[in-house]
# Entry
Amino acid sequence: MKVLNRAMASGIVALTAAAVTGAAAFGCTALATISSATAAAPVGNSVALTGSSFSGAAAAAPVIFHWNGVNGPEVARATPNAAGDVSTNFTVPKADAGYHTIVATQQNAKGEAVYGTPARQSFQVVGPDGRAPAAPAVAQPPASPTTSSDSSGVAALTFALGAAGLALFGAGATTMVRQSRRQAKPVAATVRHD
Amino acid sequence: MVVGGLLLITAAVRLPSELKDDESAAPISTELCVGRPCRANDDPRPVRGYESPSIAVNQQDPMHQVVADVDLVGSRCTWHVTFDGGKIWTDGELAIPPEFERCTLNSNGFLSMSNVVMGSGSNVYVALSLARVPAEGVDPRGPEVLGEGMLLAISTDGGRTFGPAREVIPGPDQERALVRPSLGAFPGPDNKDRLLLTMWGCGDGRCERGFLARSDDGGATFGSPVLVTPDPGGNSPSQAVLAADGSIFMTYLRRYGDERAELLVARSGDDGKTFSAGVVDKQNNLGLRYDSAKIAVDPRRGWLYMTYTDTRDGPSRVFFRRSKNQGRSWERVVRLRTDGGGRSFSPNLAVSPDGRIDVVFYKRGPNDADDVFAAVSTDGGSTFAEPEKINDVPISRKIGYWNEIGNFYVPGVASTTTSAVFAWSDTRDGTPVTNAQETLTRRLDRMPAPTS
# Structure
């Protein structure tokens, strides 16, 4: 394909003499992941937790499972095996029914977060009867200002105006009728004297 | 009474209009997935992490879309299908044979999934790059362990379901791996789809090769991968495209370690058995670190189009080029401009059946957040309308997974005669606790291209 001019051609000769560098790999390992044996449980239940792709290096700190944030209260901890896998149990803490977040952190010997951490997992706290709150609709991005709730509010106001109008009209009509009835009473005839 | 009467009349006039259907009364700009982006999943959990988005659209029914992405939280390769333009999504997880690794970062640090493509009929395809799990007791770094090979998952019902992923190209050996697949589907012989699968070849932590493998039977079998990047090598092979005369085109890059890079366009005139390539551009930071230059064929005009990033102007910018003569020469670059400074990157493009060009890219603004821009040309790339921002909330990358996995996954785009659909990774629903990131989509309605 004729795609080069002379200047480019000479440049290419020089470039090809240099080493083409391969795209070096980016990530070092897989991202850490965690999962719970059940996705939902009531407060006080013991639930098994597992995780993988943490650091299995001897100098790495244990994996700490937090409730609702990297600095949230600790609910469990476990030391990874050489393959970076962990398993433990946690007791569902006292919390409102609904979705919460389990966050698993791990630090290396320097106190830095191990690559690929923290790992996160949603966990649903259910009521004592085991029922979850009604699942929220998937939260699509909010609409612009003109929404169905705005429209229904204006409709209600319009109804109110109509009702007020009807009331005022009725009151006015009633007053007119009463006035006209008073005017209809017979007036005493003037006596004519011849 | 007079006042009451006026109020009554006012209410009588206004009330019927307030009782109209809300959707028809609302401005079109609020329509879900059209005037505003929508989530491309039905996942109710607050912790979500989806990346590497791609989107395919049914040319006969633009409401029918399939999105593919990787679930980083659960290490799954997932797909999401809608038949109503995104109001309702059905999610699915690709079934991976147990002898293969999970869907997560591979041995070279890249995500496993290709783009999703629609073929003939109701066929939908997606490729995966996965390695076999070493047998118990086998040293994972031993010679018996193979690097990543290629698997293919097929749906025959428009993406409602997918069959289990099946290995189609074994991993070469422990020192080498095939990663970052890109897939194209085209009409093939005997009413079967022709699939063109490109992939990077990596070894020793370096990726210096690009390969293409072809299937003429809808993915049932593939030929052996053909090396597209002879010495001195190259990387970032693009998705391959099929021209009207049967030529196969794809791009790749040569990076020289000091920001210099070359862009090459490779062509095969023998169904992908052999390739020849030539340099079409030399710029600093072409494709930035890992991105390929995207190439597409105009079905109406037969022209070739490319889009890519480089830093010839300083900050990274997105450029477009076209060839009107089957790649024998390429016209000068056109820069797709946006206002407000920042840097643009990760472009992708698609061409509608009537020749409209849709380009999508990310832009990092001065506020250090990302926006998504779409640019359109209806005259074969002679001119582009000013790029339009299609996300509605700046995307904070302090939330999400880009710090861990990089910003190396382009937004998706697919074009029909009457619309363009886009998919990108977004963190609008994320918090420091949930770190949520997911695929959002949006459809822009388009007018059919002029016939001139």
Summary: The first helix of chain B runs from residue 2 to 18.
